[in-house]
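quick q for whoever's on today - can somebody do inverse folding on this one?? i tried earlier but teh output was garbage lol. tokens:
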């Protein structure tokens, strides 16, 4: 049995973008809530973001430890995951009087909405999945 073939990339189900409601404050002209579209990022992209936001902090002479800036990482992570609205759109940034996608997200969203986006983005990237819990649930059914 050649079970390794199931791990070949052509046999792996791709993770598709998701459309989610982040807030009921964004509506079209008919009053319909506008969905946001998010995508998963790759391991390589996540590694680059983590490296970008990790610096060496000096504890004492000759001793350095890595210090990770989680908030800066999260902002970059979220802007990397959001497909729609286009956070790089100059007209949208100008409308909120900001200059970066990270600033735009902060300006557009309330804290709870920001958390909703973060949870959904982490989920689509597989961070919030607990395989053992899922297997237990499957076994119970």
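ok took a stab at it. sequence:
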């Amino acid at each position: 049995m050649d079970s390794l073939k199931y791990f070949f990339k052509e046999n792996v189900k791709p993770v598709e973008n998701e459309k989610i409601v982040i807030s009921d404050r964004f509506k079209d002209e008919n009053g319909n809530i506008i969905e946001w579209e998010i995508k998963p990022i790759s391991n390589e992209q996540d590694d680059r973001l983590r490296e970008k936001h990790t610096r060496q902090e000096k504890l004492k002479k000759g001793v350095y430890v890595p210090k990770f800036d989680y908030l800066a990482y999260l902002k970059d992570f979220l802007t990397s995951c959001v497909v729609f609205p286009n956070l790089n759109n100059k007209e949208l940034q100008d409308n909120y009087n900001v200059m970066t996608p990270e600033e735009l997200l902060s300006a557009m969203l309330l804290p709870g909405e920001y958390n909703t986006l973060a949870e959904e983005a982490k989920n689509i990237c597989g961070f919030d999945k607990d395989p053992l819990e899922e297997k237990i649930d499957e076994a119970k059914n």
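fwiw The first strand starts at residue 18 and ends at 20. also Residues 111-124 form the longest helix (14 residues). so keep that in mind when u check it
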